Amino acid sequence: NKASASFNEAGVSSQISDVPSSGKFSKIKYSWLFFLGSHDSFSYWVDEKSPVGPDQATAIKRLARISLVKKIMKKWSVTQNLTFKEQLEGGIRYFDLRVSSKPGEIGQEIYFIHGLFGIKVWDGLKEINTFLEQHPKEVIFLDFNHFYAMDDSHHFFLINRIQSAFGSKLCSVECVEYVTLEYMWEKKHQVLIFYHSPLYQEYPFLWPGNKMPAPWANTTNVHKLLQFLETTLEERSRYGTFHVSQAILTPRVKTINVNFLYFTFFRNLPMILNWVKAQKPGVMGVNIITSDFVELVDFAATVIALNDLLLEDDESASTS
Predict the structure, then answer these.
(1) Cα separations in angstroms, 149 against 44, 105, 155, 308
(2) How far is the C-alpha of 94 from the C-alpha of 85, rounded, in Å?
(3) Domains of the chain, start order
(4) pLDDT tens, residue by residue, 243-260
(5) Quick one: which of 232, 218, 230, 170 has its CA closest to 195?
(6) Cβ(108)–Cβ(153) under 8 Å?
(7) Do residues 33 and 307 lie in contact, with contact meaning Cβ atoms separated by under 8 Å?
């Protein structure tokens, strides 16, 4: 669509893909660069015919026996309009992933989930890998941060799927400070997997979840959200990690209706974007910013401009 196309034209992907010739960003730490991410990245499609997911409260599951309730659930479960491929083409490089087994289903198949079940994780991983095959200098973050109805056998199944999908593209756990584009290109790595389960310790390509903190404001008030984002930015330098700033307004149960997420986010876009424009990447700056409906705002061009500030700082330091 037109929104996706215009978003793609300014995408950070095209900017970073040009790095080999200029070497502009290749030596800058990944934790200093500014990346775009999507919240509930997989939620562009959920199945209203599926059971309500185990991520929901018992009261919601009971209400969902009414068909109209599931239709409403579908409206607030969908927080993105673009597929993985479209998000990647638009410059998204961080993906927020929540996964679950389907209770009662035979086997260990794992699905994306946000209230209702989405596509199989395997199908999403294949779609992402196809993009990476076509763009061998692109690097992405996959953050598996919520697991539901999963025992060890489900985790082993999922981890095997991750390994099968990406193989040698997976980056082994390193000190965050070492990760630069140059490092990733030399190793021919393209994927950093963050896995918020103790099982990460058994696999060298699974980064611990505490290396990707993503503090959550949990508010419907945009002023409180921006204050929270400022506060958590001030705290991040002490941890030596990557860092996610969630530019997300969260509905309360009493405020949920079929259009709440879309119109609340859209109405507050100018204030959120102005905050983003005032940020700076680097030691104390924004690293990854996530939002709903990523095609609705010109984050991509803003991010490119902000990353250029790092180059200006380097040039100023060199001159002095």
Answers:
(1) 22, 11, 10, 44
(2) 13
(3) 2-319 (3.20.20.190)
(4) 999 999 886 654 455 455
(5) 170
(6) yes
(7) yes
What is the mean predicted confidence (pLDDT) over 28-56? 90
By annotation, the residues acting in catalysis are 39, 114
Question: Do residues 233 and 285 make contact, with C-beta atoms less than 8 angstroms apart?
Answer: yes
Q: pLDDT tens digit string along 218-231?
A: 998 999 999 999 99
Supply the pLDDT for residue 205: 97
Locus of tokens 């991010």: 303
Is residue 271 within 8 Å of 265, Cβ to Cβ? no
Whole-number Å distance between alpha carbons of 288 and 191: 15
Q: What is the predicted pLDDT for the residue at 261?
A: 57
**Two tokens, residue 229:** 């984002």
pLDDT at 296: 79
